[in-house]
Amino acid sequence: MSDKIKYTRKGDVAVLRIQNPPVNALSHAVREGLVAGMAQAEADVGVKAVLIVGEGRAFIAGADITEFGKTPLEPYLPDVCKRVEASPLIVVASMHGVSLGGGLEIALSAHYRVAQPSARVGLPEVHLGLIPGAGATQRLPRLVGVDASLDLITTGRQVKADEALKLGIIDKVAEGDPEEVGLAYAESLIADAAPRRAVSEMPAPEPIDWDASYDGTLKKGRGQISPAQAVRAVQAASELPFDEGMLAERKMFMDLMETDQRQGMIHAFFSERAVGNLPELKGVEPRALQSIGIIGGGTMGAGIATAALLAGFNVILIEMTPDAAEAARGRIAGNLSGALKRGKITQMKFDAMTTTALEVSINYDSLALVDLVIEAVFEDMGVKKEVFGKLDAVCKPGAILASNTSYLDIDEIAASTSRPADVIGLHFFSPAHIMKLLEVVVADKTAPEVVATGFALGKALNKISVRAGVCDGFIGNRILATYRTAADHMVLDGASPYQIDKALVDFGFAMGPFAVGDLAGLDIGWATRKRKAATRHPAERVPTYPDKICEAGNFGQKTGKGFYIYEKGTRGSVPNPEVPELIAAERTELGITPRDFTDAEITRRYMAAMVNEAARLLGEGIAKRPLDIDMVLLFGYGFPRYWGGPMKWADLQGLPAVLADIESYAKEDAWFWEPAPLLKQLVVEGRSFDDLNKDAAK
Ligand code: 3H9
């Protein structure tokens, strides 16, 4: 038998113990071992029941995702499930930790299920661009009905043991050692002469309006196909005999396995785990963190303070006046009351976070003992340097001094202190207590343990932290500036902002660039354009109509008008009629005859600009790995997860095709569309961005 399954006999129960750390994924060896274990139990004279239990922290986390994309090896998981269920012995699953995907499918093939109170079960395959492929779409509806099945399968939501019991997914909740609990349950079933109970033999579930459910799920998935496909699989459970339903599920599963979406989502899964794993930090210990200082209590500072309080840190926030300090306290309490309302914290925690754990002050001396300070004041180098000067004077040796700037030069800020090795950028995204992304900006002299501490802080705050080097805009905002410019050029040449927004939402973005501009505040882009005006390259095409929108006092959502009009009930979907007039006037002034753009061309140009700038960042070393860029766009900029990120998208298109697009656009505007040297090099070498990820992991 495979060494992944340990067979033991306990009285009249055979125990199959899965030993495949860290999470007992159903690798080829585990599947083989389970089949062999069932055969051994059935041949073992006197055995009346089989107990399946997992070792370590989980029952089973599902199929082995690392095997996806390779040729599947027998025994296939659906057959393993069938083998388990077909046993003449009573089969019991004792579940602890997580039972996900194929793990739950093994449990559903057992005849009885018991779980620890802390156990969680779920079918997260849709998050990998798949549907369950080992019978869950056929067995679960027979066990718990169509509605509950569709809820779990199309959302990938995990449920705790108590809810699983209520739904009927499991038969019993019991606390203790999983093997002991399972044995006691198996013995009681034997004593009661409980029947062998195969879910596949239960009656087919009642039908629903399948087309309506399919359409609704497709719409909710914003272009993601697997959740809607899951509806069709559950439909098969209702309409077909079990074995035919299994074949239908298998076909849909295998078809989805071939999709770009499956590749994109699995890339996202592994990149999310790899992003915080920096080769340069191997063996580097972070500094201890207990208390955090924050300078500035505006939206950003208050959001960072909220995140830090929620993670259990003590926070000292500095404002300029007592009134501003109290206003900051109010903002933080407001954020925390949101968490209280959503049941994320208790009233007791809320009280502690707004009193003992939080101090607001107007005196920098209060920061003498903090371990790390994050400055979140006005974006002006002079102001920042003044703040860092004060911090340098009052903070204890070894305290980390961080700036939340979104584009300023951290090297320059660091050089203005006597301790540049302790200075780092920690770029949060607003609202900082909600948004998952944190750019950890490493300056020339930042010490490795300071970088490690930035990542440790990000982990404590439950963020996706990405390493970035110093440049204007770091990774995210620099790429944003470029693809936004590509959109601006398309507007000048004939596309409307509304067509562009729609094309990109159809592509899968949470919002289009013009709606994002309205959300962030059009004054931000206006200020950036003014700041960059003096150093602008003469060949750069910069539209002026957005300045005119701002000059009229329209900054987007906060003023009720920008590219869109924001009135109660309209949710920003009403275009501002003044905008096309301003655009038309500018085209006339520039002598441009507007042309039509298809949605496909809009998307290609937008993505090409994104990929080209990203390749430049990689070439310059601002981003170390393509996956870092993918995670920035996914977690900070609403990039559709099912494409995996812009670099994965480019790999899926094929880099020669992306480069060919860029070279054809360069015929109109050689300055903006100059191909990134790294992109050209990869095409020549026949390599992909993912090859660079693999190089970095070596
Ligand atoms: C499926 O089951 C299809 C079937 O329906 C049909 C098949 C025919 N495989 O996340 P962590 C690794 S699809 C391989 O850091 P946590 C993970 O990469 C599957 N590896 O820990 C990491 O490796 P490393 C449906 C896996 O405690 C390590 O384990 N199942 C798998 O925060 C620790 O993971 C899912 O989608 C796997 N299935 O979270 C579940 N799972 O240390 C996906 C994990 O080298 N997994 N690894 O970086 C999860 O949601 C979380 O990993 C889990 C643990 C909750 C299990």
TrEMBL record:
<dbReference type="InterPro" id="IPR006108">
    <property type="entry name" value="3HC_DH_C"/>
</dbReference>
<dbReference type="Pfam" id="PF00378">
    <property type="entry name" value="ECH_1"/>
</dbReference>
<protein>
    <submittedName>
        <fullName>Short chain enoyl-CoA hydratase</fullName>
    </submittedName>
</protein>
<keyword id="KW-0443">Lipid metabolism</keyword>
<dbReference type="InterPro" id="IPR001753">
    <property type="entry name" value="Enoyl-CoA_hydra/iso"/>
</dbReference>
<keyword id="KW-0511">Multifunctional enzyme</keyword>
<keyword id="KW-0560">Oxidoreductase</keyword>
<dbReference type="InterPro" id="IPR036291">
    <property type="entry name" value="NAD(P)-bd_dom_sf"/>
</dbReference>
<dbReference type="InterPro" id="IPR006176">
    <property type="entry name" value="3-OHacyl-CoA_DH_NAD-bd"/>
</dbReference>
<dbReference type="GO" id="GO:0006635">
    <property type="term" value="P:fatty acid beta-oxidation"/>
</dbReference>
<keyword id="KW-0442">Lipid degradation</keyword>
<dbReference type="Pfam" id="PF00725">
    <property type="entry name" value="3HCDH"/>
</dbReference>
<keyword id="KW-0413">Isomerase</keyword>
<comment type="similarity">
    <text>Belongs to the enoyl-CoA hydratase/isomerase family.</text>
</comment>
<keyword id="KW-0456">Lyase</keyword>
<comment type="similarity">
    <text>In the N-terminal section; belongs to the enoyl-CoA hydratase/isomerase family.</text>
</comment>
<keyword id="KW-0520">NAD</keyword>
<dbReference type="GO" id="GO:0003857">
    <property type="term" value="F:(3S)-3-hydroxyacyl-CoA dehydrogenase (NAD+) activity"/>
</dbReference>
<feature type="domain" description="3-hydroxyacyl-CoA dehydrogenase C-terminal">
    <location>
        <begin position="473"/>
        <end position="566"/>
    </location>
</feature>
<dbReference type="InterPro" id="IPR018376">
    <property type="entry name" value="Enoyl-CoA_hyd/isom_CS"/>
</dbReference>
<dbReference type="InterPro" id="IPR008927">
    <property type="entry name" value="6-PGluconate_DH-like_C_sf"/>
</dbReference>
<comment type="pathway">
    <text>Lipid metabolism; fatty acid beta-oxidation.</text>
</comment>
<keyword id="KW-0576">Peroxisome</keyword>
<feature type="domain" description="3-hydroxyacyl-CoA dehydrogenase C-terminal">
    <location>
        <begin position="602"/>
        <end position="687"/>
    </location>
</feature>
<dbReference type="InterPro" id="IPR029045">
    <property type="entry name" value="ClpP/crotonase-like_dom_sf"/>
</dbReference>
<dbReference type="GO" id="GO:0070403">
    <property type="term" value="F:NAD+ binding"/>
</dbReference>
<dbReference type="GO" id="GO:0016853">
    <property type="term" value="F:isomerase activity"/>
</dbReference>
<dbReference type="Pfam" id="PF02737">
    <property type="entry name" value="3HCDH_N"/>
</dbReference>
<feature type="domain" description="3-hydroxyacyl-CoA dehydrogenase NAD binding">
    <location>
        <begin position="292"/>
        <end position="468"/>
    </location>
</feature>
<comment type="subunit">
    <text>Monomer.</text>
</comment>
<keyword id="KW-0276">Fatty acid metabolism</keyword>
<dbReference type="GO" id="GO:0004300">
    <property type="term" value="F:enoyl-CoA hydratase activity"/>
</dbReference>
